[in-house]
Amino acid sequence: MAELTTTKLDPDTHLILDQPLLRLPHELLRKNLKSAQRQIELANKSITTSITASATAHSTPAETLASLDATLAKAQNLKRKLEALHAEERTLHRQQKARIRHLQDLHEIPSLADVKYDVWSHVRLDRLLVDYLLRQGYVESARQLAAGKGVEELVDIAVFEECGKIDAALRGGDVREALAWCGENKQALKKINSNLELELRLQQFIELARTGEMGKLMDAIIHARKHLAGGADTEFGLRAGGLLAHPPDTLVEPYRGMYSRQRYTTLASLFLQTHHTLFSLPAQPLLHIALSAGLSALKTPTCHSVHNHNIGTSSAGHFNSNAASLTGTPLCPICSTELNELARAVPYAHHTKSFMEEDPVVLPNGRVYGRERLRGLNEKLGTGKGRVRDPVEGLGGLEWREEEVKKVFIS
Amino acid sequence: MEAILAAHEALESKSNLSKALSDVDALISMLQTARDDVSNGSDKPVLHIAKLKNPLKQSFDRIEDDLKEVNKGLNQYQKALKDKFKSSTLPTAGVGGESGLGSAEQKGLVERAIAMHLLREGKFDVASTFVKEINAASANETYREEDDMQDLAKGHLQKKFADMYHILDALRNQHNLTPAIEWARNHSAELENRGSNLEFELSRLRFVELYTSATSQGSFSGPLQALDYARTTFPSFSNRYMRETSALLGSLAFSPDLGSSPYKTLFLNSTAWEDVSASFSSTYLTTLSLPSRSPLHTACTAGTIALPTLLKVERIIAERHGQWTSVNELPVETPLPSGYLFHSIFVCPVSKEQTTDVNPPMMLPCGHVIAKESLEGHARGKHRVKCPYCPLEARTTEAKRVFI
């Protein structure tokens, strides 16, 4: 059986949520390399052809010179492009380094009880928060928080910002940016068998068909031949063909659905999903994963009990006290107004052993305290000798004789 | 981590585009030379260019090789990553679905928690940007209800936290007690009712401060000011802090030579300001019914500690029961550091279940406690029941609900 408490810190399992931190820059480096490869390929082809062309032609020296100048310009252009990519690469390397160091820090912390763990976990929370803010599209807040906490190297503002822009454009009915993105990531998309581009092309086709004009319908057919017929997936071509037979106000499925504006929302979700898969980003905000597990691990049946005196908003109940008291124990985060409602639906933690203060005693009102703590709290309250109060009730509650406090046996 | 670090260093030092760039430079200078030759009136320009063909091909081959090197580095890094993070699956339970944190209804609550966390951290500017962005977003999405985010940022809470930081700043950084004492005096009755020592602690520190200050006007002016302060302030504490106040006043007798007096520890306490700051902020937050540490931080940290266990369980029960969120209790224990236990926990020794409002803990007259359902099961409908842990018998009606 597991223990009630632990301070063991196993960095390998502890870093479950932190994989994307290292994976994303890596994917970006790959993308960067792919761009470099493409640039070089293009330059290679065009430079070689122009040299070959000028070598065979019986041209004047002036023409040769001009052709060489053009070639030189191409090479210069390649250099500029590569320099930009190299700069990007350096930025990514720096980011990678900062992230590795951040994770390395955790490996050097001996236990969960160490103060350094507290510092580290605060940085992680900042990261999770920025990740959440970015995913919800609160870019400005994310930027400010990251800058305020000095965690810019550990978060991916630029990636999410671009992603958010494309997402918003799609929701607004514009597929151009998404298509451009598909173009940039063509090979990677092919690798994961994504049909995002086909869906986007189909959407363009749908828009042409929606007009119902003969000329546009012809364009639609040409568009379909160009973009929807090539692949192994014939389904897109078939759907496109079928659509032509149905006017925009059709009630026949799936064509009614294809004409629907709702399709843009679907496309946006598909885009997000594809984007996150491609960059090894989890589909859910990391904050949700950490938080839902944490709420459960901390929650006890007491946290939503009507007798809980810590909940500021709880209605009367047996003990009428709507303010927290300084009973010496720290306030429970689940009982606090910050998380109480949020934790209502999650399961509470599983325990197989009771967890009690030393030497428990019970007051006449049924509330149980550790004897020593009860004494200390009554001293702070200034209760008279031989008398005792329930610290939760404070000075407003009843006062009893000390003999009325009974020992209670809890196993 | 070492393997990742090594792979990263290889990337930084070798496997990057700098080599390709220098090869492109070589290509450019080669073209440049050819161009210069042609423009200098070389007689056979065509031949010149024809001669370029081979070196051109070679230099592009070289550049491509350079990139292959980068690719190799990336592959090595990826391998190191894969060795480090064996499983890439993340838990999904509790996140999606109707009641999950991802649902529209819970989104408001998550964001409220974030806003409160930002305020608590003193990030007022971020919090206000955040609320602005939320409002802008919800203006577009009509289905989202207006929540209390607006007054969260504008009003009450932000002011409370701003006040707290103001007082804390004075206390911790400027060693200025005045704002804190003023706050404590205004909340005097409340603090007393909660058994807080804060007001007295602050006054004591003021006494010490006066005592040891102002040596320029003669060595007695400090103690005299302290005495004066004690006369006006301490009477209100006399009941609860009789012993402490008399100790403070007693120290006056030793004023020239405190270091060797029995009151030394009262005066030469280097952490006094830090202590009183911590005491102030936790008291302040408690009067707002807020925990002294950020609940969001506590919950997220607890979550990451519990995740490996939950993940393992999720894998095991996925085929059989669905998710761990589908029941009202987690299926396994998720041990946390002791600082993460906030309530006493009572597990009925008979049924091994935690007690709840529906099935509360009941104390028999002998002082043994079991869950209500266990008691009823044990009594089997009779009016008398024997305690399962001692020979005592009692009427079932004598069992008393206790609050643990």
TrEMBL record, chain A:
Keyword entries, A-Z: Coiled coil, Cytoplasm, Metal-binding, Zinc, Zinc-finger
Cited SMART domains: CRA (SM00757), CTLH (SM00668)
Transmembrane ranges, per UniProt, are none
| GO process annotations (BP) | proteasome-mediated ubiquitin-dependent protein catabolic process
Pfam families (alphabetical): CTLH
Q: Which residues form the RING-Gid-type domain?
A: 332-393
Q: Does the keyword Nuclease apply?
A: no
Single GO cellular component term = nucleus
Looking at the record's lineage, which domain of life comes first?
A: Eukaryota
Q: Where are the zinc fingers (RING-Gid-type)?
A: 332-393
Q: Where does the record place it?
A: Cytoplasm
Identify its protein family: Belongs to the FYV10 family.
Would you tell me the protein name for this molecule?
A: Protein fyv10
Which taxonomic lineage is given here?
Answer: Eukaryota, Fungi, Dikarya, Ascomycota, Pezizomycotina
UniProtKB/TrEMBL annotation, chain B:
Keywords of this protein's UniProt record, alphabetized? Cytoplasm, Metal-binding, Zinc, Zinc-finger
Q: Which GO terms describe its molecular function?
A: ubiquitin protein ligase activity; zinc ion binding
Q: Where are the zinc fingers (RING-Gid-type)?
A: 348-390
**Lineage: superkingdom:** Eukaryota
Indicate whether Nucleus appears among the record's keywords. no
Domain named CTLH: residues: 160-218
Alphabetical GO biological process terms: proteasome-mediated ubiquitin-dependent protein catabolic process
Q: Where are the transmembrane segments?
A: none
Q: Where in the cell is it found?
A: Cytoplasm
* RING-Gid-type domain location: 348-390
Q: What's in the GO CC field?
A: cytoplasm; GID complex; nucleus
According to its UniProt entry, what is the function of this protein?
Involved in the proteasome-dependent degradation of fructose-1,6-bisphosphatase.
Q: Which family does it belong to?
A: Belongs to the RMD5/GID2 family.
Q: Can you say what this protein is called?
A: GID complex catalytic subunit 2
Task: Please name the source species.
Answer: Baudoinia panamericana (strain UAMH 10762)
